[in-house]
Prior knowledge:
This protein has about 110 residues and is of the alpha+beta class. About 40% of the residues lie in helices and about 25% in strands. The longest helix is centred in the first third of the chain and has 17 residues. It is globular. The two termini are about 15 Å apart.
Amino acid sequence: MKDSSVSTENADRSGAQFFSCKLTTPELQKRKAEVIAVLKKQVLSKTELDNGFRYHFTATDDMLETIAAFIKSERACCGFSNFTMAVTNDDKILLDITGEKGVKDFIRTELEM
């Protein structure tokens, strides 16, 4: 993973910020990779939002715990993202990952989700 944060000095001409992960220890990087791998396999569908993505999962206790672990690890490394999780009455979990301009591209490349 890349050393990271939001850089205002590295904005492109459109004003978009460059984002990168600030996770540096191998143990944290490994844990993050493991959680992301589990999430990728469980995504039922993905909806593109103006400022990020919404991911749909089956609502199970294990999936709730996995998403919570993902949010916890992402908060530690990617504090520029917003995470919103909802459980619907049709047994789905919705996870929105959003942020300011440029976060959507970061999600595509860094998380590959």
